[in-house]
Predict the structure.
Amino acid sequence: MKKICVLLAAYNGEKWIEKQISTILNQKKVKIDLFISDDGSDDDTFEKIKKVSTKKKNIFFWKNKKKSGSASQNFFYLIKRVNFKKYDYISLSDQDDLWNKNKLLRAIKIIDKKKIDCYSSDVSILHQNGKLEYLRKSQKQKKLDFLFEGGGPGSTFVLKKNFALDLKHNLKNNKKIVKKLNFHDWYIYFYARINNYKWHIDNFSGLKYRQHENNQLGANIGLRTKLKRISYILNSNFLNQIKYYFQLNKSKRRYFKFLFDSKKSKSLSYVLKNYSQFRRKKLEKIFCLLFLILFIFKRKSLL
């Protein structure tokens, strides 16, 4: 039976965390150890974790003395802290989702069958009114999609041990830069793709992705969320994240000369010819093109 390490980043999740822990522990035909990092919750989250873990020997948990400040930083902390060597796979979990009983089993079967390193999938959006909505993230992967987005919600990620150990090494050796990263799921996908690891996005939903007022960005559906994302990009955070990603992967810059060429005309020419290589809808590809052009014009102050 495969051994899986599940990393759960918690913060003020007293409403949902007990149910989520239950769905994780009820996974079929896999052996699980669950590691929970409570990022200094102000509610009863930590007490509920202790209560659930009383009779469970496979739950390991702690409360951070100093808040990391975001779910992404909490996940990076988990990745750096937990020893992965005795596990076959590493999976990420939010505190407020509901997992299908076969979620992990399906993921590892696909990883083994396709001989890949990383797995993610579509999700079912669970709205506050109880309505379910399918969110497809399994569009065909493109050459440059990782410059703009992750491989779907991080809660769907299942990673082979060797990749996770490599990622851990990258994070540990660049602590100052890692503190500036805003999205763990995007960076993990970026790191995998730029370092030639094989990633598969499954056209299957293995969890209910709960939407509520505490989501950092939430699923990319609805006008409100789309406007939130556009605002994030326009205030230059997007450009800064790309800068940090390449600082964490300096040896790969030479393969992306179109971003860093001293002659901006060459960069623009490449982008105009290849902007269709984003895993996006047609209109979104045009937005991606505009942001890449903006990146090129602003790069002297960013890189």
